[in-house]
What we know:
This protein is mainly α. It has a domain at 3-16 and 83-219. The protein has helices spanning 3-6, 8-14, 18-25, 31-49, 56-63, 67-74, 77-101, 107-122, 126-135, 143-149, 153-165, 174-193, 199-214.
Amino acid sequence: MPCRAALSRPWSRLFPTIDHMAEVTADYEDPISSRSRIIAAAVRLTCADGWSKVTMGRLAGEAGVSRQTVYNAVGSRENLAEAMVLTESAKFVFTIVEGFENHPDDLLSAIHAAVENTLVLAEGNALLRAVVSATHGADTELLPLLTTHSEPLLGTLMVVVQDRVDQYEIDLEPEQITAIIDMVVRSALSHVMQPTATPRKTADSITWFVARILGLAGELTGPRA
């Protein structure tokens, strides 16, 4: 199943302003390219100096565009922050889906790939860690934005993983499967905020735990590919 179809249910809630932003930028030359450069520049500046230091003028210089282009492409500063946070959050979603799609017949390998790839993605990305921290209630500059304008990242990831896991045959009650998913997602996000081992070793540990619960520990012969 294509990624877009798989994400159709949570996607509309995760990105509530995408259609509006498309309308705002439709009359300008190559707005998608400009918007992408501007958001990427906003991420760089936020990671380097914090969101409070990101001004439209400084952002225009970093992205190599005029201030008017910044306003045309992303609207207000609040819209820019929302687009920036949602763009970074979407990377988690696509990484998880990719892990499952690469292992359609092996649930343990799919879980391992999704967890490891997510942790690798988060390494060195201060903004992604801030988004996850805010989702867990930490006090960050972007917390009001997350709680006001978007569905919590945790809830979105839960829905995405549930959609993928439903494609595998698991001999457990639905509420038990949901409990396992909750444990895996929360554990992975906690390691994003405070890693205690390499992404591979952490994925090994989480996959082993799931295998024990499912009675599949005998199928684990070493680190999952």
